[in-house]
Write a structure and sequence with these properties.
Layout (H helix, E strand, L loop, with lengths): L14 E5 L3 H13 L3 E5 L2 H6 L8 E5 L7 H10 L6 E5 L4 H10 L3 E4 L4 H12 L8
Parallel strand pairs: 1-2, 1-3, 3-4, 4-5
Amino acid sequence: MAGKIKPCTAQERPRLLLVEDDAGVRRSLQLLLQAKGFDVRAYAAGAALLADPLADKACCIVADYNMDDLDGLDVLSGLRSRGWAGPAILITAFPSPQLAKAAADAGYSIVLDKPFREHVLIDTLTKLVGPVAQSVT
């Protein structure tokens, strides 16, 4: 699927999808990404993300692998089946070579092992979606 991935178009604040079932991790990532200039739509469950009609307008997804309802592979599969072709980052506390292969086969650009340093996520997003202008408030 990597050949079908399209880069994000220039936007003032690129929209990211964030799906993470741990409320503390989700909120801290959401605040970090917003501070770095992204418009973040955050979800506690994969089904909630897939039910959001605005999800298709996002330029990138950051998804946890191990969640209660759908796993991160299922979430990306659901988006891809609707024609969404943006880059995707899988985050996991359970890394393995098998998961890395399954993630690549599903269309993930990269798998980041938890815990990761904030700059690793930001650097990865910058590579995938381009630099983001940060607004000064």
